[in-house]
What we know:
Layout: E1 5-8, H1 18-27, E2 32-38, H2 50-59, E3 63-69, H3 77-83, E4 87-91, H4 98-107, E5 111-116, E6 134-138, H5 153-167, E7 172-176, H6 184-190, E8 194-197, H7 199-202, H8 207-219
Helix pairs in contact: 1-8
Amino acid sequence: MKNARLAPSILSADFANLARDIELVSRAGAEIIHVDVMDGHFVPNLTIGIPVLQSIRKITSLTLDVHLMISNPEEMVPRYLEAGADIITVQYEASCHLNRTLHLIREGGARAGVALNPHSPVHLLEEVAGICDMILVMSVNPGFGGQSFIPSSLEKIRKARRLLDDNSQGGLIEVDGGINRTNIAEITRAGADILVAGSAVFGNQDPGAEFIFLSSLVDNLDR
């Protein structure tokens, strides 16, 4: 099995120096940049949108992993595809026509993911597991960075791993929320393929060095 990959979340980056921060983690070996889009409606916070994503796309060839924490995501998917998203993840709780939305993302040339909030059980995705390229397990309540990892998320990761292994061709498990030095190995062993880290990386004085250190903690794990 390929080693899990760390995806720095720019939610915790310095927005006045976003290009610099992306370059720092890129030089450190990052392959994926995680982009949290919040609308102030589905979650109680407002973050970046299409113009920022377009600007990021111009300065990096890294995989742009876009998490839409917005109401009615199917209405905005085409615009985020056009803006350069490589992965688009929508919230299960926000999508009334999830099957259609996942097909829309895949037909647009991106990989399609579904995120589950902490209160949503994995079995809700049984009917779409075959067309889901990624399940994102939210290990905090979405909306703000810097929260603590919810311990029960470990078993949820294991369940999501089993679901995709049984129903998907190479589906990935992503985990977002409260990942740091103390728990990153345990989360990886539970079945995570992509580990989103925001404040753990960009809250450090040297984001590049911290990225390298966190990555080293999972590089040679016995999974």
